[in-house]
Design goal:
It is built from eleven helices and six strands. The protein is α/β, with parallel strands linked by helices. A six-stranded mixed β-sheet has the order 1-2-3-4-6-5, sandwiched between helices. A hairpin with a 4-residue loop joins strand 2 (about 115-120) and strand 3. The N and C termini lie far apart (about 100 Å). The relative contact order is 0.13.
Length: about 350
């Protein structure tokens, strides 16, 4: 479905003269604090930031702070609605983004998710962007869905217009878990090269029950493997191309094909004149990346440790079996030697 934006002739992105790296350095040195933060970046991230500030590249929108800048529902409610609608293939209207500071009934916090929003019909949508594929993606998504259902349940039980006895499970609306993988793991790749997967709970007998969990997995790296000329022109493709686009020439081509995206790139371009805001988002992105990398490494180490533990247990079991077999063999040999001795003495 195509967002309801007015068609317009796309202006040239960042038509003002682009700074050179030398001009950027001169500009940043006027603010010693910013320049110090810039100098502290490693080579890779300093290059990314420099390319953006001189107008060579767009923002890496698959990082959480930049994604939320573009889809901030406080300013662009229709964008998030249109994005989610195109992904799910149905009309979704986002009315609010839920707070991450709420707690469950026992005082424990909810799961920390990237973006959780409520729709006009009471459904809840979770949009997650994962830079790298973690282990156990199915279990993770199930936990996300369970969390969203519990949010609904608690809200319904606390509704001021009825008592707890008035609660009905009929009040539970669907929950949608959308996970965008920038780098997918092998179990999420199919020979068909499908890049978007929709799923829900079904029964092998065809029993039709209203199970509220809905899932959508997007393999962005698989989508990027498709030549631009072979991508079907539609709203869904446009949004996924937006998330995949960093080069200026690709952004200009995208605007030519989807003129309604022009304001988005204009907003991104305007950030070049607000470097303080960009640095804040960049720092948040780096912090989250470091935290996620650490979590990923810890999980990998735990998985490897579990494998070694199982291997050791298996080895111990095998060794014990060998010891028992050896003991039995020795006993059998002793018995045979006894019988042989008795035979020889006759």
């Amino acid at each position: 479905m195509t967002p309801d934006f007015p068609a317009q002739r796309p202006p040239v992105i960042w038509s003002d003269p682009a700074d050179t790296p030398e001009e950027l350095t001169y500009r940043l040195k006027k603010n010693p604090t910013l320049y110090d933060r810039y100098q502290r970046l490693n080579r890779k991230w300093k290059g990314h930031l420099s390319d953006f500030l001189i107008g060579k590249k767009s923002l890496p929108l698959t990082y959480d702070p930049f994604f939320k800048f573009i889809f901030n529902p406080d300013y662009h409610q229709e964008r998030l609605s249109n994005f989610v609608s195109s992904i799910l293939g149905m009309q979704i209207t986002v009315v609010e983004v839920l707070s991450m500071e709420d707690t469950l009934m026992d005082g424990e916090s909810y799961l920390i998710m990237d973006l959780v929003a409520r729709t006009d019909d009471g459904s809840i949508v979770n949009v997650e962007i994962q830079k790298q594929g973690y282990d156990f993606p199915g279990q993770r998504m199930s936990c996300y869905a369970s969390d969203l259902l519990l949010r609904q349940y608690i809200k319904a039980k606390k509704m001021p217009d009825h008592s707890a006895h008035d609660f009905s499970y009929r009040d539970i609306k669907p929950v949608y878990v959308i996970v965008i993988f920038e780098h997918t793991i092998s179990e999420l790749r199919l020979e068909s090269h499908d890049y978007i997967h929709h799923g829900k709970t079904t029964f092998d007998t065809g029993l039709d029950l209203h199970m509220p969990e809905r899932f959508c997995i997007i393999a962005l790296d698989v989508f990027r493997e498709i030549p631009y000329s072979e991508i079907k022109k539609c709203s869904q493709s446009a949004w996924l191309l937006l998330l995949s686009t960093e080069k200026l020439e690709d952004a200009e081509r995208l605007i030519q094909d989807y003129p309604w995206m022009s304001p988005i790139f204009q907003e991104i371009a305007a950030l070049r004149r607000r470097p303080e805001e960009v640095f804040d988002m960049w720092s948040e992105a780096l912090l989250q990346m470091d935290e996620n990398t650490l979590k990923y490494q810890v999980e990998r180490m735990q998985a490897e440790n579990e494998k070694l533990k199982l291997k050791a247990e298996k080895s111990d079991a095998e060794n014990e079996k060998l010891r028992e077999q050896s003991k039995a063999d020795k006993s059998r040999i002793a018995e045979l030697e006894r019988l042989l001795q008795e035979a020889q003495n006759k």
